[in-house]
């Protein structure tokens, strides 16, 4: 234990992607590593934000079906979006930006002057199955009328990418959390495994889990909300109805091999409902914790490995 306590640990918080990013780096000489995190968070946001007119995502959304050359970051993002859409049977759908904007989620939560601008031909829901990506050349082509919203999966993927880079740069261990999406890898600051506190969407006592490596994501229908004439709305949409989800689920946490994958699979609970989602999580061996509007917390079988 004394050796563990002697390991240098650096912690930092940054503003990024309309939220706070928390970073922990384990190992000697953390200053250049923390600088790398800050640079990469800024770079990825400038490439992926739908609120920046000159981002690569905004460029793709405005291309009208024409191919565009993108950075390797954006190629990785688009590929991850399509894979997640397929893996969740469409519960995660990254092409609902037109509907989201129509419902009123236009401006950044951290800067009301940063607004989403969409092409005139954008459809309420796009065609993820027709998105074309050529990784070698970096060319991405969206079907005409399709627009992408990186949203939560962008935060999770950013954490995944940067943690991997930190280990390549010499960190012994690293943790990055961006807006509820967290990725862990390598040596923990103390003991065996990284302790992570998970708060319930319905309040109550938080849950402590300990993770050696992997990703955790939490989604809630009570976080990103905005008023409308028909009542408050939230950002989690049902691809079948094109409306904010109205099932019994108000919060979901998933533990998976990566933060991006965990983030995508939280959407299954909101779209399919608690009972069906737990069946999906059990079939796939995913650890999940689902909170319903009656205050009850439900767990997949794999969650028991991490404790209640």
List keywords for this structure.
single chain, 308 residues, alpha+beta, eight-stranded antiparallel sheet, three-stranded antiparallel sheet, 8 helices, 30% helix, 25% strand, globular
Describe it.
- This protein is an alpha+beta fold and 308 residues long.
- It is 30% helix and 25% strand.
- The protein has eight helices and 17 strands.
- The protein has helices at residues 2-5, 31-48, 56-61, 72-87, 97-102, 151-168, 259-272, 274-284, and strands spanning 9-16, 19-26, 68-69, 132-134, 139-141, 173-178, 181-186, 194-198, 207-211, 214-220, 225-226, 233-234, 237-238, 243-244, 249-256, 287-292, 297-299.
- It has an eight-stranded antiparallel sheet with strand order 1-2-6-7-10-15-16-17. A three-stranded antiparallel sheet has the order 3-5-4, with helices on one face.
- A hairpin with a 4-residue loop joins strand 13 and strand 14 (243-244).
- Helix 7 (259-272) runs antiparallel to helix 8 (274-284).
- The chain is globular and about 55 Å long.
- The mean pLDDT is 89.
